[in-house]
């Protein structure tokens, strides 16, 4: 599926600095506020719905035989055209 990058920032940060960014995102999610991302002249503001899809991924990457780069990715995903109603998948039930 094609994608359009609306915002991207990558820089070395201390664990404490990263934790502060994640806390701000968590606080905004808790309170239902939008999440505004800014770096230089780039910025974007997104308002996640009450129940976005949450994906967590741990990866090992690198060239074959030398996969030494580790990462943890956290992703919130939602359809911006969703009307807020449940999609019908709901809670699993086995009868």
Give a verbal description of the structure:
With about 100 residues, the protein is of the alpha+beta class. About 20% of the residues lie in helices and about 30% in strands. It has one helix spanning about 15-30; strands at about 35-40, 40-45, 55-60, 70-75. The strands form two sheets. A two-stranded antiparallel sheet has the order 1-2. Strands 3-4 form a two-stranded antiparallel ribbon. Strand 1 and strand 2 form a beta hairpin. The longest helix is centred in the N-terminal third of the chain and has 17 residues, at about 15-30. The protein is globular and about 45 Å long. The N and C termini lie far apart (about 35 Å). The relative contact order is 0.13. The model has no long low-confidence stretch (mean pLDDT about 90).
Q: Which short descriptors sum up this protein?
A:
single chain, 95 residues, alpha+beta, 4 strands, globular
Provide a brief overview of the structure:
The protein is of the alpha+beta class and 95 residues long.
Note the overall shape.
globular
Order of helices and strands: HEEEE
Biggest pleated-sheet summary = 2 strands, antiparallel
DSSP strand count: 4
Mean pLDDT: 88
Using the CA coordinates, give the radius of gyration.
17 Å
Oligomer: single chain
Low-confidence stretches: none
Please give the order of strands in the largest beta sheet. Answer: 1-2
Count of separate DSSP helical elements = 1
DSSP strand content:
25-35%
